[in-house]
Amino acid sequence: PGTLYIVATPIGNLGDLSPRAEKVLSSVAIVAAEDTRHSGRLLQHLGLSKPMIALHEHNERERFDRVLKELLAGKDLALISDAGTPLISDPGYVVVREARAAGIRVSPIPGPCALVTALSAAGLPTDRFLFAGFLPAKRTGRKSALEALKREPATLVFYESPHRILDTLADLVSVLGGERELVLGRELTKTFETFYSGSAEDVLAELQTDPHGSKGEFVVVVRGAEASGRAEAGSQLDVDKLLGLLLAELP
Ligand code: SAM
User: What residues are in contact with ligand 1 under a 6 Å CB criterion?
Assistant: First the structure.
């Protein structure tokens, strides 16, 4: 059978397509893409014209039969998404899983990924981080998702769209507190690349007053909860209280 290549493409700056990604894209028989029109433009830019299979979240399972047939016929296939690394908040999971189960070689061609790009320049701890993808679109769901992450000590990373960024930041302030440090990466690798950093309430205020603030694509990086500090202070108090009670009982 052929090989299924999982190829990362740029998240904005076309110069970020790796030479290896370009080589693979030009060598495969078929390109499976999330949006064939969008990815068609990338291929055109590379001077390539390839048969394409449209593969999005809703038809992944059904289209897999076609993908599998081509692979079993010995053809190499490249899976790409609209931007960045496939499967990272993008389709492909079913295809990769089923291809592996069918004994097909799946080979990653690494490259841009918005979450790693943001983390690499945010200046928040990266030894442990929790990528939570997109928060729920509705306020109640979003707030309870944030509530569940409130005490997480690892750095938190979210993706957000321009029309929800202000609402999400407002919910972050109300659930995690306005003091929580955050770094917002906007339009990474593109002409209007901007980082906003500071306390959650300051970043929200800055974005609200910036005329271009809520335009573009965003990665939200949030400092994890201060795990030890407060918890220890709390248990210290309990120990003091307990000691007081015990001492009072002493003859
Ligand atoms: N697979 C992609 C990756 O590897 O990063 C992510 C796809 S997800 C559907 C799209 C989201 O990624 C956007 O809503 C935004 O949160 C983030 N994103 C993608 N490109 C970005 C960029 N250039 N700057 C900031 N965020 C970006």
Answer: 11-12, 81, 83-85, 88-90, 113-115, 159-161, 185, 187-190, 217-219
Atom 2 of ligand 1: nearest residue by CA position: 84
232 C-alpha to ligand 1 centroid (Å): 38
Distance CA 30, CA 52 (A): 6
Residue whose CA is closest, atom 11 of ligand 1?
159
Number of other CB atoms surrounding residue 43 within 10 Å: 19
Q: What is the pLDDT of residue 238?
A: 63
Going by their DSSP bridges, the two strands 194-199 and 129-134 should be labelled as unpaired
11's CB contacts (< 8 A; 6+ apart) are 83, 84, 112, 113, 114, 117, 188, 189, 217
Whole-number Å distance between alpha carbons of 124 and 183: 8
Tokens of 117: 């790009």
Centroid of ligand 1 to alpha carbon of 83 (angstroms): 7
For the cut 80, the answer to whether the pLDDT of residue 235 exceeds it is no
Tell me: the pLDDT tens digits for 14-68?
999 999 999 999 999 999 999 999 999 999 999 999 999 999 888 888 888 899 9
60 alpha carbon to ligand 1 midpoint, in Å?
A: 20
pLDDT, greater one: 215 or 1: 1
Give the pTM.
0.89
